Fold this sequence. Notes:
Elements: H1 5-10, H2 24-34, H3 37-45, H4 51-55, H5 59-79, H6 83-86, H7 91-97, H8 102-120, H9 128-146, H10 149-168
Helix pairs in contact: 2-9, 5-7, 5-8, 7-8, 8-9
Amino acid sequence: MDKYYYLVASLPYLKFDAEVPMSSGSFLEECAKWVPEDEMRVLTGFGDGQDEAVAEGRVFAGEWREFEMTLRRAIVRAKEPGASERTYVPDAAKGVLGAENPLVMEERYERAKWDFLEGKAADGFFSINALAIYYLKLRIKERLAAFNKDEGEKFFYNLCEVKDEQTNG
């Protein structure tokens, strides 16, 4: 049921490749002012494996969990030797696996999740699902913002040096 008109209308627009307009914590604080406690448990459950949301019988929560698990399984299966001949790999997973480095792979993985959420956004513009979609998008943006290319490269090369020293020493 759509009932969060003011709250949803007051939220800043989220764009995949733009800055994070607010933290997921700030979002949840704002939601707590408008959303009843039982629905807040459902909403926060999306950050904790969706158990609460799925237990409440929320259709979107089940769809989200299924999409995420299917995407992860497809990526893992596609990495197995000979997988391309024996396994169907969804396009979203193919895009992730075709990345030239781990950072791009992670960005594409998050983009696949974002695109799924975009497709679900029209299922109830002012409902708890709309808030859940917004929350999940904020978490995606926060994860992407936490990536630091320079630190990642440094960690990678340090890891490679240690491994190289062990094999040569």
